[in-house]
């Protein structure tokens, strides 16, 4: 049963994040410490240094042999449902788009489970529920964030190749510098795949997940311990990850004209995807694999955890709806506590 002490633990975990956000906001809006170019550099540092070490640190300490693969399977089914729905929407609807499908995928599937979910679910159902949330966080880092990186790199490669083709077309003229306007055919599939995989190959976020889970399998199989010098090197960079991400979000907010950068309509859209569509898809996946009782309840509640901070960092780095993701993180954490407690009491009546 959740108590006031458990709620306090969640609030205590969330408040420092807002302190970091406020410092980032004030350093640009009030104190004029950073320029827009420096803000971009800070976000880049978070994306390519702090977050890979953060991912590596908590992946290293998981036990892949003790994972609940039924819950992980339910999670995979729920995300597959979301991907198929978004793909159909982008393909068949006049209002659908590839870019909004990527953003909607982030809003529906990627959660900030380590900061909010782990302490809250520990209070609701016990240590086993917290362990389950950590397991799903590891899978999210290895599979679903890697998938997000893949589609973001694919979008970026398509844009860059189309720009190169357009420039070549503009300069393909005859006599007197005349230009020929032609239709540019957004390049070949395998050419794009080569570019994307090369980009992923040099992205430290890809290596962090792979190295972390490889060590976890080896260490738990043969009961090995990481040397303290290596452990300390990873930990010192990892601890900066979440705080710097919120600081970077504060920098981004300060460069926008409004605090709610995306407006109330898109804010409501993001909240609906995060707190309704994601849990609904998870309920379908959980029932499909036969989860029952508290296991089913935990699976649904963890899908309603607030938006992943990593999704904002990647959205800003790749220039795709960063204002929507920042609003989803900021307001999602504010409204998540009463919503998650409401989920807890509502699901307690379910057999």
What would your notes on this structure say?
It is a single chain. This protein has helices at residues 4-29, 36-60, 69-92, 98-109, 113-125, 127-170, 189-201, 204-222, 228-238, 241-254, 263-288, 293-302, 309-317, 322-347. With 351 residues, it is mostly helical. The protein has one domain: Na+/H+ antiporter like fold (Up-down Bundle). α11 packs antiparallel against α12 (293-302). The longest helix is centred in the middle third of the chain and has 44 residues, at 127-170.
Topology:
Elements: H1 4-29, H2 36-60, H3 69-92, H4 98-109, H5 113-125, H6 127-170, H7 189-201, H8 204-222, H9 228-238, H10 241-254, H11 263-288, H12 293-302, H13 309-317, H14 322-347
Helix pairs in contact: 1-5, 1-10, 2-8, 2-9, 2-10, 2-13, 3-4, 3-11, 4-6, 4-11, 5-6, 5-12, 6-7, 6-8, 10-13, 11-12, 11-14, 13-14
